[in-house]
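Class prep. Write one:
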Amino acid sequence: MRFTEHEMTVAVEAVARQAFETLPGFMRRKIGAATWAELPKMDRYRLLSASSKLLIPGLTALPERPTVGATPAFTTEEYAEAAETALRDRVDRDEPGAWEGLSERKRRKQVEAAAVTLRVGVEAMPHRQDPDALIVPDHL
C-alpha cells in the first residue's frame, strides 16, 4: 500500500517507542534514559533505523486500502501475509532459500511478531485526509 511520508514516519516512531518501552529497566539504565524523551539522539536514531528496516517493507506489502477520515483497517490475515512477504524477501535477499531452511515454528513466530509490529505502526498513523478536499490558503 502507498502511505505518505508523514504516515510512515509516525508509524516508525510508534514502533521504536514501543520497542524502547519494552526494554527491561536494567537495559534502560545502561543506555542512560528512563523515558523516550531522555534517550540520547544516537540511541534514538538506532531504534528508529532498526524499526524502519522491519516496518517499511511490511507496510508497502499491505494491500491497497483507500480510506478517508480514518486509519486503514486490515485483517489479521492481511497483516500476516504482508509480514511474511517482507520477511521472506529480507531473508532470501541475503541468502537465497534461507527462508525455506527455517523451521516452520521459527517462521511462524517471526511472522506473528512482524504482524503485531505492522499493526502497531498502522494503528499509530493519523487519520487520512481526502486529497481532493484539501483547501490551499490564498497566501501560498
